[in-house]
Amino acid sequence: MNKIKAAIIFVGLIALSVNSAFSAGMDSIIKKSSLDKTSTIAVSVKDAKSGKVIYEYNENKLMNPASVQKIFTMKAAYDELKPEYTFDTQFYADKNNNLYIKLSGDPSLTTNNLKNILKDVKELYKKPFNDIVIDASIIDDKQWGIGWMWDDDTNELLPKYSPYTINENKIDITITPGKNGIAEIKNKSNYHMMFVNLLKSGTSNNVVLERMPWQSSDMTYVTGSINSAVSKKLPINSPQSYFTIELRKAISAAGLKYSGQIKTAPVPGNATLITKYSSDSLENLIAETLKNSNNLYSEMIFKVAAAHYSQQQGTTQKAVDMFKKYYNDIKSTTGMVIVDACGISRNDLMSADWATDALNKIYNAPEFDKFAVLLPKPMEGTLRDRLINISLRLRAKTGTASGISSIAGYIDTKNDKKYTFAIFIQNYNQSPESVKKLEDDLINEIYKL
């Protein structure tokens, strides 16, 4: 018996020694970084199954999670809607030969999708229509998140989201050097947008797009310099107007005839379903959301999940209610703030301790592996150029905003232990590359365990 006790004590001392060395190594990496002097760094590492704390540093500080938040909002939506869910845009006819289009909140809907399904509508219905009526009641029409920045209005990563979403609510523009030093701006869409062209010829391309909503909501100022042709994706200002323009284009391309107007109204109860267009499965759309950090997808999916959860029109607040119910058993939820799906709002607040608790909850839920593969691994999505040395051992989500960097996820260590980790860094004024390097150094240190 004494030998057994001695062996247990010996193993415990070895484990304590390993953990102490690991903590010292993590502390050293942080302390050697100049970021620790000027910025806020928070780290939490836990055993994925037991929840045992492996390492903590400022773990209770509430910080901006940026796109790491998508892991948790998308998991709540994934469980509410189920992985096989599809966004079904439905087409109905009433007794007066009006065509109703019931929008589904599909973030991936394109003009080509509409054109192809409208061809089917024409073949199936055989009669000309009177009015084309759009039912956009699935989610509300609040198009930007609380605490989003006005100067992101032209950021292609942050288009407005709406039940009227099509082509991710962005248009393609090309800018080319012109004669006499005046650049030429071409809008490839029928969506009208005003440009104030202040570009100058230069030795390099440095094109800046900016809107000043206090002057004109649909006027884009183009400044900087241009040396060769540049293509840009520019968010549109009015999703409903853009959708209507693209719908007319799809109707024309499909050869579908109607004699009335394009209107908005709910689908009447006596209307007959003609056909529907189904998106890719939810799990594939969430994979796009997480791997490539698609903000529009996350907001649309979150709101549609809220509609399913509440059996009412989907709103961000109802989605937040759904989120809080899903994670209500995590003790450190108190004090955190969630106001959007994608985490871009400066109002969002989360601790690294909560993040690893939530990751543990997800890990211990049924069919974890099916959700985990939706997260990027090195050489994929936002991790395509990072942590290549442990590409088969890591699934994680990154987050980046001005002065904010984060990463959280799951790691299988060198000795086949599975840990959850969250690293939040904010209020820095160094290059993003140097901040990402610190994150990678910490993750590589975890891998050695």
What this model shows, in words?
By secondary structure, the protein is of the alpha+beta class. It has 2 domains: 230 residues, Beta-lactamase, CATH 3.40.710; 193 residues, D-Ala-D-Ala carboxypeptidase C, peptidase S13 (D-tyrosyl-trna(Tyr) Deacylase, Chain: A). 33% of the residues lie in helices and 22% in strands. It has 11 helices and 17 strands. The strands form 4 sheets. A 5-stranded antiparallel sheet has the order 2-1-17-16-15, with helices on both faces. A 5-stranded mixed sheet has the order 13-5-4-3-14, with helices on one face. Strands 8, 9, 10 and 11 form a 4-stranded mixed sheet that branches. Helix 1 packs antiparallel against helix 11, helix 3 packs antiparallel against helix 6 and helix 4 crosses helix 5. The protein is globular. About 2% of the residues have low confidence.
- The general outline is globular
Count of individual helical segments? 11
Structural class by helix and strand composition: alpha+beta
Roughly how much helix do the residues carry, as a percent range? 25-40%
Return the domain count: 2
CATH superfamily name of the largest domain? DD-peptidase/beta-lactamase superfamily
Q: Averaging pLDDT over every residue, what do you get?
A: 93
As a percent range, the share of strand residues is 15-25%
Number of DSSP-assigned strands:
17
What's the architecture of the largest domain, going by CATH? 3-Layer(aba) Sandwich
CATH topology of the largest domain: Beta-lactamase
> Biggest β-sheet, characterized?
5 strands, antiparallel
